[in-house]
Amino acid sequence: MKLIIAVISREDTEKTLASITEAGFRATKLSSSGGFLRTGNTTLLMGVEEDRLDELKAIFSDKSGRRKTTTSPIFHAGESVVTPLIETSTGGATLFVLDVGEIIHL
To answer: Which of 20, 42, 72, 78 is deepest in the core (most CB within 10 A)?
Structure first.
């Protein structure tokens, strides 16, 4: 059994969750935010049998794609620094895969 902690862009949440649940996986959704651009993310917690891990990875790969965006870094209130626009990669998925001894659904 594996515990998957998946961090995806908020923009990809609905289509990714729809595919995950359609495939019969369960997920707990948490709102989160990134540190660099401080944009909205979603963190999903999932318990998955090891033999279905590749299937789950394929869903994330298909539904949470990376894309290029141009943005200005966000600063804390009161900062008066002028910065040029930067091109950065957003989206995609970061999956943390951890071994779990047992999952109990009550």
So the answer is: 42
List all residues 6 or more positions away from 9 whose beta carbon is below 8 Å from its beta carbon: 39, 40, 41, 42, 64, 90, 91, 92
Q: CA 56 to CA 4: how far, in whole Å?
A: 10
Segments making up each domain of the chain, as ranges: 2-99
Mean pLDDT of the chain: 82
**In contact, 59 and 80? CB cutoff 8 Å:** no
82 or 13, greater pLDDT = 13
Count Cα neighbours of 73 within 13 Å in the Cβ-side half-sphere: 11
The lowest-confidence range among 17-21, 29-33, 51-55, 80-84 is 80-84
| The two three-digit tokens of residue 22, written as one number | 């359609």
Q: Which fold has domain 2-99?
A: Alpha-Beta Plaits (3.30.70)
H helical segments located in the chain: 13-22, 53-63
